[in-house]
Amino acid sequence: MSGNYSSATEFYLVGFPGSRHLRYSLFATFLFLYSVSLMGNSVIITIVCVDKRLQSPMYFFLSHLSVLEILITSVIVPVMLWGLLLPGMLRISLRVCVVQLFLNLSLGTSEFSLLGAMAVDRYVAVCNPLKYNIIMNSQTCNWVVIVSWVFGLLSQIWPIYATFQFTYCKSNVVNNFFCDRGQLLKLSCDNTQFTEFVLFLMAIVIIAGSLIPTVVSYTYIISTILKIPSASGRRKAFSTCASHFTFVVIGYGSCFFLYVKPKQTQASDYNRAVSLLVTVVTPFLNPFIFTLRNDKVIEALRDGVKRCCHLIHKKPFPRAVL
């Protein structure tokens, strides 16, 4: 590291520059998306836990995916919303910046691992249905989830250490709405090229490590579905994979453009736009993707609403005490 330089102990997040009216409009929009995301993913977790029709590996993984979506968006969005309410830039300490970046990257890595596991689960369900209950038993599912969470946490320890070992003396103003690693590296007085290259290779390994089994699984799935003679059979088989496949396309596409690039110090406007897609839009779409295209989830939701309405109408009103 460069000598005789004092590194920044706090940073200022630029967020979304513009007029106060624009910032308040963005605050209302992002608060709405965040609220819907929290409620939608919470509903998915709840119905998977209470409805016996959803007690299968597919929905078990889906509930953990919803937990990850809630945590990922909650690490970023509340800080972003608070910054939009302030008249100037949001000040954030170095320690909070480290924690935010670590949680964001580790939870995202766990999500990639889980998406790969969900693809393999769909492969077994479509291509080997007779062995599905034997292969995807409860013990296997529990270990898959545990490994996904642990791998995500452990795999980001060195990248976070490597990011914050530099001296940040050029400035302490981060041109984004969260502690973005690319924008942080721009502020370093040291040579970050080697570290950026290693981080680029790690991003390729992590994303490709879950993308390859996903692509292979869906290649076999599509091949198997096309061999089904009846149109209704093909439609039913494809409906079990459509939601996961849609989410995979959105999730991998956005994260590929955000993290898999040799030069981490990408243009700030580019990073801000893609980061919004990853942290706000995708978690918002997740509940709709996995409910509107899934008949079992829709039935469970409909029955849950009926039960709630029945309990509300059945509950007697308290009598007034004279």
TrEMBL record:
Pfam family, one: 7tm_4
Compartments (UniProt record): Cell membrane
Keyword Membrane listed: yes
Membrane topology of this protein: Multi-pass membrane protein
Domain G-protein coupled receptors family 1 profile, chain residue ranges per copy: 40-290
InterPro entries hit by this protein: GPCR_Rhodpsn (IPR000276), GPCR_Rhodpsn_7TM (IPR017452), Olfact_rcpt (IPR000725), Olfact_rcpt_6C-like (IPR047132)
Predominant localisation class: membrane
Keywords annotated in UniProt: Cell membrane, G-protein coupled receptor, Membrane, Olfaction, Receptor, Sensory transduction, Transducer, Transmembrane, Transmembrane helix
Superkingdom in the source lineage: Eukaryota
PROSITE patterns (UniProt xref): G_PROTEIN_RECEP_F1_1 (PS00237), G_PROTEIN_RECEP_F1_2 (PS50262)
Keyword Membrane: yes
Matches recorded under Gene3D superfamilies: Rhodopsin 7-helix transmembrane proteins
Regions that span the bilayer: 26-50, 62-86, 92-120, 141-161, 197-221, 242-260, 272-292
Family note: Belongs to the G-protein coupled receptor 1 family.
Protein name: Olfactory receptor
Organism name: Echinops telfairi
Source taxonomy: Eukaryota, Metazoa, Chordata, Craniata, Vertebrata
Gene: LOC101653608
